[in-house]
TrEMBL record:
Its EC number is 1.11.1.7. The keyword Repeat does not apply. InterPro entries: Haem_peroxidase_animal, Haem_peroxidase_sf, Haem_peroxidase_sf_animal. Coiled coil: none annotated. GO terms for molecular function: heme binding; lactoperoxidase activity. GO terms for biological process: response to oxidative stress. Keywords: Oxidoreductase, Peroxidase. PROSITE patterns: PEROXIDASE_3. It comes from Drosophila virilis. The keyword Hydrolase does not apply. This is Uncharacterized protein, isoform B.
Length: 1259
């Protein structure tokens, strides 16, 4: 595809012609040509191998009276204007049109008849023209056929310009080059870079010695007569080469002809062009005294090619420009060497700067509206080919060959379609549909559930609660608790409850115990009825009972104040709807339901809980009545330790997944009396230590752990403590989320005001530790970390208590702490009048947006695939505001997401945390994962944060599959002095899901539109046969498979890492996180939104830039931190070359604006130039170009010089001042602009889970 697009541009930008002569040049010796003037047009070498060539027709400069040297005529226009499609003459233009609905005759296009890829691409573009024309005619039936044709042509031309600069040039020139202002496209607004003072044109060197390089990349298949748009997408281009692929009828290969034409055109030799380009880019080197001996030193032509050149040319200064440039090694991240890159860059800068009709320009009346520009900017080549109906599938990046990851083949329905709604004139405002909550059907009350039964149950629950408290106290007094630094204590500290969570759980227990007593009573009544009246009496429906229980109010029976005590109480005043800042706890995000999504509230559920007793007991029995398999047996059988390194993604995917998980979920577990940590390792600990202990034994025959403790002789068990309950009503147990339920960077700032105050200073900065040796700041150190194992007793603290869990996590926490403080200093520079409170909250707001953008823009597409991202509505907007916030949808995190689905990172872990130097070389020793838990003193070494971060972005992760490293299945939190003291993380995942009442895997298959399995073979579409065989050895029924092992063993979706069930749960979760968050960074709510300029800056954010900015020594890094470095697709580049947030977008104008030569107060307007009007706002001047309807009046009001200096005026009225005639063919544009339009919001009453089975990767 890439060389075909290059040829499309060549056809659009230049064409040489020849003067007619009476014969063939190679036959002139035989008297074929006698006229001397005709002989001058021949440039051939006589002899048997003569190849026919007529010199390019000479041209002349209309601005110069006399010709000094021969210059060649360019028959094509010197703009990217679609002239290769539509023609550059009136005759070609008219011959192409059908004069029906603005259509064109594809067969009449000159280049459409060319065989191979070139013709196929031209045909696809013109077919898209016809499709656009039909739609324009439909939405604007009052438009004339002429209007439809011209607007369709204008759209296609703009599309070619956008694809060229947005997709084509970054690959050809490298992103470092296209990031320069002269080539960079504008975001969110119009461009103002047009200059009429710079002369337009095509450089001869570009036409004859740069663009022909694309011909060398054509594979033979793309030159075939049968080549189609499908082949354009699927066939790989060749490496650039001087070896001819085929020759024309005259015996010329395309490259040989280009070299010969370069000599005809008088193109300077390679070494002279090298000198020009070197000076242009401020590089060292000169053309003087170039010889074959020093050619390799002065250029990057490899030695073997220099040897070949020495055999061909007598002198190094004779080397043809195209030949020398083609032999250069490519620049990093670019397609060609520096010389061709230089020539292409120079030309494409000129094309953009000198085109008055450039699609981004705001020069009335030819400019597009901002809404129309938004549609054009969303265009991709893949979407264009799909829109032309030439293909049914395409990869998202058409110029890059498809792969199994982010560039996997998508159905055309999943690719962006061109949105023509902004072109609809006189559009009526459409109705905005509100989401309407549907009240659940009320169940008929169970008649046995009498007030007397409930009251008796509550009394028994009170007694049981008192007995439980006495038991916990007696155990603590007799046994105390275990050390937080022990393996079991370390595991417990990873889910450490704060005082508020413990208080909430205490108030929840009475509801749980009362619910259990009610169920026992109802079961007893049912058994008596069976014995006395009817042996066939049915038991009550468990789901019906739980629904009924949740409607019963027992507050009067409980008595006293059962409201949990808050460790850090928040103000209870009315929410401030006008504040742009989130609360720390998440309260007041939803103005209708202020506590939705608040920290210390319970999780939601996708499916009803399945407890053993219907209320709270963990699942232990399968559907056949046999016990569920031991979690350790499942772990060792289904999740063995087999390394399978990923070929594309870096270990940063794993680390960022954990970082995000800690933003969204923290499920606290029970503590003992006086906040002690009970020892739940003894197999009888539930009876002897704490009623919430939930250990499970080491199974017989385990390959690593002994079945019996060799020291005590007791059965060996894995410790497990149950999660805290949080429900505040009768019914099944629900677990607490100690974090906020929003993607709000709470792992950086904390989930309540009290924690936030510990972490922040008074100047707006976050508190930090001065590096004890040298280097940038570190996280704050604390001596009150009971689980800390550092030799000095100090561990780091952050917004989430787990920040010191392992060095990789601590390193990324450190990067975001530094990012906050960096932003504070930047904001202080642009707004010196802001106080510390303002600086803190604005920086926190930006960091929260950075996290959201990185998750949705970089992380989720790699995890889920573009198919799933599109189906779940997770694709970010390239510009404009998100309009689908719904105050009626709940943001609460799903229990299934927290307890199973988002534990995917456990499969990505590697045994070591790698370290890399600034030269990207391994630093020994790497940090062994088992030795790094809560041991932070190693991070006080100079430069080690940099080494860890570089290692994370440059080291492959483990593939996300069923295999898990033994570091976390056999050695998690292990004390090396105590054999077999480690814990199995995967077995804990399974045990935790059963503790939470998570239904089996098969239930989620049905929820997510997969086939509900009735037999083992029904799993074969999603799960490999050998894995199914292992499941059969462990589970008695397909309905018993736990969610985590079932979902983790599915084949991944095409282009993603997870299978369809995990993609479903993760997809719907992040859909809610975006749709239900009032402070979502793209939202259009006037009170909380970022300005358009600020939003444009936030869309530049990448994780690589955040990491790079906060290294001690920046150096180089790849642009995509989640992808491994690649010399072409993901090269390492200097950190400063990556896009940078410009904090001037946050500048607050309290004293007005400088508009032209005037100081203008906020709210007032001024004219900085005759045809530009600006309004001073708090964000700075907001300017717009004026459409001039009366040039005479403009001339009377403004001086001639001022009008000519203003490009907007000059473009519209300059002809009246200079007397020049309009040059070139430019059909009259349709007058008038469409009014603003309102986009319809679809009703989101019930989200229908999409079917992901078509996107499962093949075997």
């Amino acid at each position: 595809m890439l060389p075909a697009w290059g040829q499309l541009l060549a056809n659009d930008l230049y064409e040489v012609g020849q003067l007619p002569i009476s014969g063939k040049c190679c036959q002139r010796e035989a008297g074929g040509i006698k006229d001397p003037s005709e002989l001058q047009q021949c440039f051939v070498r006589a002899g048997a191998d003569c190849k026919e060539y007529k010199r390019s027709a000479p041209g002349f400069d209309a601005e110069v009276c006399q010709k000094h040297v021969r210059e060649q005529m360019n028959i094509a226009s010197a703009y990217i204007d679609g002239s290769g499609l539509y023609g550059s003459t009136r005759h070609e233009f008219d011959q192409l049109r059908t004069y029906i609905s603005g259509g064109v005759k594809v067969e009449s296009c000159r280049y459409c008849q060319v065989s191979g890829a070139t013709g196929a691409l031209h045909r696809a573009l013109l077919q898209q023209h016809n499709n656009i024309g039909e739609q324009l005619a439909h939405i604007n039936p009052d438009w004339s056929e002429e209007d439809v044709f011209l607007e369709s042509r204008r759209i296609i031309t703009a599309t070619i310009q956008h694809i060229t600069y947005n997709e084509f040039l970054p690959l050809v020139l490298g992103q470092e080059t296209t990031a320069k202002e002269s080539l960079r496209l504008t975001a969110e607004k119009h461009s103002s870079n047009y200059s009429s003072s710079i002369r337009a044109g095509i450089y001869n060197e570009f036409a004859t010695s740069a663009m022909p390089a694309f011909w060398s990349m054509y594979p033979p298949e793309m030159l075939s007569q049968k080549s189609s748009a499908h082949e354009l997408l699927s066939i790989a281009a060749l490496q650039k080469s001087l070896v001819p692929s085929q020759t024309n009828d005259e015996g010329w290969s395309e490259l040989a002809l280009a070299v010969h034409r370069g000599r005809d055109h008088g193109i300077a030799s390679y070494v002279h062009a090298l000198d020009i380009c070197a000076r242009r880019f401020d590089q060292n080197g000169a053309a003087a005294n170039v010889t074959f001996d020093n050619l390799a030193q002065l250029t990057n032509i490899p030695d073997e090619h220099v040897t070949s050149l020495r055999d061909i040319y007598q002198n190094a200064e004779d080397i043809d420009l195209l030949v020398g440039a083609m032999l250069e090694d490519p620049a990093v991240g670019a397609l060609f060497g520096p010389t061709i890159t230089c020539l292409l860059t120079t030309q494409f800068e000129l094309l953009k700067q000198t085109d008055r009709f450039w699609y981004e320009n705001e020069i009335p009346p030819s400019s597009f509206s901002l809404e129309q520009l938004k549609s054009i900017r969303q265009t991709t080549l893949s979407g264009l080919l799909c829109g032309s109906h030439q293909v049914n599938t395409a990869q998202s990046k058409a110029f890059i060959r498809e792969d199994n990851y982010l560039n996997s083949v998508l159905d055309c329905t999943q690719l962006p379609k061109f949105d023509l709604r902004p072109w609809k004139v006189n559009a009526e405002e459409e109705i905005h549909l509100e989401h309407v909550e549907v009240e659940p059907d009320t169940k008929e009350a169970i008649k046995e559930l009498s007030p007397e039964l409930i009251e008796a149950a509550v009394e028994r629950a009170k007694q049981e609660l008192e007995e439980r408290k006495r038991f916990e106290y007696e155990v603590w007094r007799a046994q105390g608790g275990i050390s937080a630094r022990s393996p079991d204590g370390t595991a417990a500290s990873f889910s450490k409850a704060n005082l508020a969570a413990l208080s909430l759980a205490n108030s929840s227990l009475i509801f749980e115990l009362a619910s259990n007593e009610i169920v026992k009573s109802l079961n007893s009544i049912t058994r008596r009825k069976r014995q006395i009246f009817n042996p066939n009496q049915n038991a009550f429906n468990r789901n019906e009972l739980t629904d009924t229980l949740q409607t019963v109010d027992i507050s009067a029976l409980i008595g006293g104040n059962q409201q949990p005590l808050e460790q850090c109480p928040e103000p209870t005043q009315q929410c401030d709807a006008n504040s742009p800042f989130r609360t720390l706890s998440g309260r007041c995000n939803n103005l209708r339901n202020p506590n939705w999504g608040k920290s210390l509230t319970t999780f939601s559920r996708l499916l009803p809980a399945q407890y053993e007793d219907g209320i709270s007991a963990p699942r232990v029995t399968g559907v056949t009545g046999t016990p569920l398999p031991n979690p350790r047996t499942i772990s060792t059988t289904i999740h063995p330790d087999i390394s399978n390194l990923h070929t594309r993604y870096s270990l940063m995917v794993m680390q960022f997944a954990q970082f995000v998980d800690h933003d969204l979920t923290l499920t606290p577990i029970h503590k003992g009396f006086h906040e002690s940590i009970p020892s739940c390792r003894p197999c009888n600990s539930r009876q002897t230590v704490h009623p919430e202990c939930n250990p499970f034994p080491v199974p017989a025959g385990d390959f690593f752990y002994p079945e019996v403790n060799v020291t005590s002789g007791d059965r060996l068990c894995f410790p497990s403590m149950r999660s805290l309950p949080g429900q505040q009503s009768l019914g099944p147990r629900d677990q607490i989320n100690q974090n906020t339920h929003f993607l709000d960077a709470s792992m950086v700032y904390g989930e309540n005001v009290c924690l936030s105050n510990k972490l922040r200073g008074f100047s707006g900065r976050m508190n930090s530790t001065v590096h004890p040796v040298r280097g940038k700041e570190l996280l704050p150190l604390s001596a009150t970390h009971p689980e800390c194992k550092s030799r000095n007793g100090l561990c780091f603290i952050a917004g989430d208590d787990r920040a010191s869990e392992q060095p990789g996590l601590t390193a990324i926490h450190t990067a975001f702490l530094r990012e906050h403080n960096r932003l504070v200093e930047g904001l202080r520079g642009v707004n010196p009048h802001w106080n510390g409170e303002q600086l803190y909250h604005h920086a926190r707001r930006i960091v929260s947006a950075q996290v959201q953008h990185t998750v949705f823009n970089e992380f989720l597409p790699r995890i889920l695939s573009w198919n799933a991202v599109n189906l779940y509505g997770l694709k970010l907007l390239p510009q404009g505001y998100y309009k689908d916030y719904n105050p009626s949808c709940s943001p609460i995190v799903f229990n299934e997401f927290a307890a199973a689905a988002f534990r995917i990172g456990h499969s990505l872990l590697r045994p070591h945390i790698p370290r890399l130097s600034i030269q990207h070389q391994p630093v020994d020793p790497p940090l062994l994962l088992r030795d790094g838990f809560f041991r932070m003193d190693v991070l006080l070494q100079p430069g080690i944060i940099d080494e860890i971060l570089r290692g994370l972005v440059a080291t492959p992760m483990e593939t996300l599959d069923q295999f898990i490293t033994g570091e976390v299945t056999n050695h998690l939190f292990e004390d090396r002095k105590i054999p077999f003291s480690g814990i199995d993380l995967i077995a804990l995942n399974i045990q935790r899901a059963r503790d939470h009442g998570i239904p089996s895997y098969n239930n989620y298959r049905a929820l997510c539109n997969l086939k509900r399995a009735s037999t083992w073979s029904d799993l074969s579409r999603e799960i490999p046969t050998e894995v199914i065989n292992r499941f059969q050895k462990v589970y008695a029924s397909v309905d018993d498979i736990d969610l985590f092992p079932g979902a983790m063993t599915e084949r991944p979706l095409q282009g993603g890492l997870v299978g369809p069930t995990l993609a479903c749960i993760i997809g719907i979760q992040f859909r809610q996180l975006r749709k239900c968050d009032r402070f979502w960074y793209e939202n259009q709510n006037p009170e909380v939104k970022f300005t358009e300029a600020q939003l444009a800056e936030l869309r530049k954010v990448t994780l690589a830039k955040i990491v790079c900015e906060n290294l001690e020594i920046q150096g180089d890094m790849q642009r995509a931190a989640f992808d491994l470095p690649s010399n072409f697709l993901n090269p390492r580049v200097p950190c400063q070359s990556m896009p940078q947030i410009d904090l001037n977008a946050w500048r607050e104008n309290v004293q007005g604006c400088q508009i032209g030569n005037r100081n203008v107060r906020v709210g007032e307007s001024a004219f900085p130039s005759p045809c530009t009007s600006c309004v001073c706002s708090a964000e700075g001047p907001q300017c717009a170009s004026l459409r001039i309807t009366d040039c005479g009046q403009l001339i009377r009001q403004w001086p001639k010089e001022a009008i000519l200096r203003d490009e907007v005026c000059n473009s519209q009225c300059g002809i009246y001042l200079t007397g020049q005639q309009a040059a070139g063919f430019s059909p009259q544009q349709r007058q008038g602009h469409a009014p603003s339009r309102v986009t319809r919001s679809r009703n989101q009453n019930l989200f229908k889970f999409p079917d992901l089975t078509p996107f499962i990767a093949s075997l």
